[in-house]
Design a protein that fits this description.
It is a single chain. The protein has 121 residues and is mostly helical. It has one domain: uncharacterized protein sp1917 domain (Helicase, Ruva Protein, domain 3, Orthogonal Bundle), CATH 1.10.8. It contains 7 helices and 2 strands; from the N terminus they run αααααββαα. Strands 1-2 form a two-stranded antiparallel ribbon. Helix 2 runs parallel beside helix 6 and helix 3 packs antiparallel against helix 6. The N and C termini lie far apart (29 Å). The mean pLDDT is 94. It comes from Planktosalinus lacus. InterPro entries: SP1917_dom_sf, UCP033199. This is DUF2200 domain-containing protein. It holds the Pfam family DUF2200.
């Protein structure tokens, strides 16, 4: 399934800081913690706490956020539907990466075990 150029541009220019509070609310409402959210973000991006906070403070766009990231080698194992799109069929790399993060947050909020979320054996 292809995304539109407008959709991809919106993903690229959206700031991580504008979405992050929604991630926190979503996981905490379902009984998970901010620390678990950070563990998932760190797994996907390689960011430590201070780098993550710096990107939030800088109001980094998702484009900058993922340019600075070192995507986990198992990120391609993140598959399935999110926001009406099948992740593995998204052609634009940045949009796919944003949807990887959305999917991980979704799995965390749904109570999936951390070892499954982090694609460990």
């Amino acid at each position: 399934m292809s995304t539109t150029p407008e959709h991809d541009q919106r993903m690229a220019t959206m700031t991580f800081a504008s979405v992050y509070p929604h991630y926190v609310t979503k996981v905490e409402k379902k009984g998970r913690t901010k620390e678990e959210l950070h563990e998932v973000i760190t797994w996907l991006t390689g960011f430590d706490e201070s780098t993550l906070q710096t990107l939030i403070d800088e109001k980094a766009t998702f484009q900058r956020f993922f340019q600075k990231a070192s995507l986990h080698p198992n990120a391609s194992l993140i598959t399935g539907m999110i926001c009406g799109y099948r992740i593995e069929e998204i052609e634009t790399p940045l949009t796919r990466q944003v949807r990887y993060l959305d999917k991980l947050v979704d799995e965390l909020a749904k109570g999936r075990k951390m070892e499954k979320i982090l694609r460990k054996g």
